[in-house]
Specification:
It is built from 8 helices and 14 strands. It is α+β, with helices and mostly antiparallel strands and 259 residues long. GO terms for molecular function: 2-oxoglutarate-dependent dioxygenase activity; iron ion binding.
């Protein structure tokens, strides 16, 4: 199946770019066509069911909600990640030189009522320059009933928030939670096939999925400047496939994240 049968390609308008700069986020509606939604769900669920069991309240958020490097197991995700319409969006928001930084599933299946507190994605993997993008593509309709994301518009303007963790917290991969004013939060309700794009400093959280019959399945893809380094790792370059332009790092230029 051709990519044009699966994905909708378009450029962001001047109004959308201005809104992103001011508010720190955008929702792009219908970035996946119905064929793309169906195929991506099929591949992602096959991978999920292969590695995950049902929700277990005694397991960590990582065990219950995340499946990393999903592009290794899902060809449609791989095409979307490396050659899909998000590349053009990243070029407009980051620049001509971009690499893929993360691909994972972030699922809250029905019964998973665990909330995820306020945080910045750059708090979990601090990249410099500070222009990395998080993209969340909905595989289901997401709303307040099944654990949609909440964010605080404009909160990216405060920059990187430092949260101290001791060695035990780091080893256990505990959550990095920051203080935020819940009264400023806005729910990011989306239809399946929509994609939420936001700045690496955006404060966001999610509540639990209290629906009895609906899952909340999201594809998480992160993009960064091709020369982005890992601040937390002695300034080493973040490895990821170069999806546009060039880089000064040979190890990034030659890196191939293939299935």
């Amino acid at each position: 199946m051709k990519k044009d049968d699966l994905f909708n390609y378009r450029k962001l308008t001047k109004e959308e770019l201005a809104s992103y700069n001011e508010n720190g986020f955008l929702i792009i509606k219908g970035i996946l066509k119905q064929e793309g939604i169906d195929q991506m769900r099929k591949e992602c669920m096959a991978a999920w069911e292969k590695e995950k069991e049902g929700f277990d309240p005694n397991k960590s958020w990582l065990q219950n909600s995340l499946l990393v490097n999903i592009h290794h197991q899902a060809p449609t995700v791989r095409d979307y990640y490396f050659e899909g319409p998000l590349i053009g969006v990243a070029n407009q928001l980051i620049g001509p030189n971009v690499k893929g930084a993360t691909s994972q599933l972030t699922f809250k299946m029905k019964g998973n009522t665990k909330p995820f507190g306020w945080h910045q994605d750059n708090g979990y993997g601090e990249l410099e320059p500070y222009n990395a993008l998080t993209t969340l593509t909905a595989l289901d309709d997401t709303d307040r009933g099944n654990g949609c994301l909440w964010l605080i518009p404009g909160s990216h303007k405060q920059g990187q928030i430092r949260v101290e963790q001791d060695e035990a917290q780091k080893k256990s991969q505990s959550e990095i939670v920051v203080d935020a004013d819940d009264s400023l939060a806005v729910p990011m309700e989306m239809k399946a096939g929509d994609s939420l794009i936001f700045n690496c400093w955006m404060l966001h959280k999610s509540d639990g999925n209290y629906s009895t019959d609906r899952d909340r399945r999201i594809l998480f893809l992160r993009y960064a400047d091709a020369d982005a380094i890992e601040v937390y790792n002695n300034g080493k370059p973040r490895l990821g496939r170069l999806v546009s332009g060039n880089t000064r790092f040979d190890e990034v230029r030659t890196f191939e994240a293939t299935i």
